Amino acid sequence: MWLGGHDTNLTLPWVFLISYTHMPRRIETILAQAGLHYQDITAVSSRDVIPPLHLSTTFERGSDGSYPGGFVYARHGNPTRALLEKVMTDLEGGADWSAAFTCGMQAVTAVFLAFGAQATVLLNQELYQGIRLLLDAPFGSWGLRAQVVDMTDLGALEVAMARVFADPATARVLLWLETPSNPMLQIIDVRAVIAMAEGQARLHRKDFVSVLDTTWLTPYLLQAVGPLRIDLTLASATKFLGGHSDLLAGVLTGRRRKLSHATGTTFLDLEAPIRQLQRHAGGNLPPFEAWLLLRGLKSLPARMRTHCENAHRLAHFFASHPRIAAVHYPGLPSHPGHAVHSAMMSREGLSGSMMAIQVRARDGEGEDGREEGAEVEAMVLRVVARLRVFRRATSLGGTESLCEHRRSVEGAESRTPWDLVRLSVGLEAYEDLEEDWVQALGEEG
Ligand SMILES: Cc1ncc(COP(=O)(O)O)c(C=O)c1O
Predict the structure, then answer these.
(1) What's the short name of a Pfam family annotated to this entry (predicted)?
(2) Where would you tag: which of 16, 27, 65, 278 has the fewest CB atoms within 10 A of its CB?
């Protein structure tokens, strides 16, 4: 089988061979012409330039009983989804397969189910909150243990990792990485963490699988499967990949697998169980969302460059503003993870468009008799309420700039500072973004 979405053994159509061998290899070209490079997958006789949307749930057999189109039933595989998965595999570079789901969290669920129980998931103390909540319930009671550690402290990580690998109750380890982290943009040294896990795996003759959440950067900015030796990436395509805040999607992209540290044989290719889940449990990305996502992907490189340029300029503006107590943006040399982040990124000078700022009260402000945290929160909410270009909404990665006071969203267990605002910097004219913050920070109130 050459394509994950197909259900029958197909020989490659000659059209495909010709278009593939002459295909330009640069990712900007592959994305811009996404439908044209894989015309065989979504083949129709009208020779559409834009990939057609395939809504059929079932596909007709040939006279010999086979499936000449390569598809059987839409839960097993659909041409629009198959095209998307192929393009996502190309985008990651060094990967062998992708699987698209209804949202990022459905993709996370597929990884946990495919990995199985009697395992431990090692996570950074700061990451997208939904993943911790999913591990609490239902996966905790199912037998997948979570071990939380500060992964920015490699000494602490080494101790925690040694304990996890040595634990006889742990059959294998799932290394769950997110960099930059949500919401404080902590940077994890992925190469160092993988090298450490490889050492522990050899020592204890136990295997691990590494997953990197690339939602905030996208594989365009950070290619992880090849260069960083990550096994599997997870992207909430709801964010930058889709890019227009109009679809939910999650994509897993992986490689077929490395040698086992425990047995010396090929170890744990998660593709097979994940494909099994797609076929038999569903949760797959529907064709319309796959089509919309393909459309969004075409402009990903151009969008990401503008996102990053706007964010970079805004971070410098905040860094010298008297009412900003801290800027968390890994593109700034003052960020503690700047050097590590820059060394991991695939595109020089592009550091992402997510950032967080901590807002300082002006003199005398914030003495309104409330408890300290609530006072600070009220002060920050007054500032963001004055914004006119940045919109107050959750999520990120669309063309429009958004901001969010994370502490009030995360609830009682949150450790996020009261004065922190997370920003997703969009594609508006930079001057409008800066002027918006000038007036919001400067006004009385
Ligand atoms: C870093 C990160 N990972 C995963 C997810 C979950 O993705 P989705 O909302 O598409 O399920 C999110 C959502 O905000 C996220 O920010």
Answers:
(1) Cys_Met_Meta_PP
(2) 65
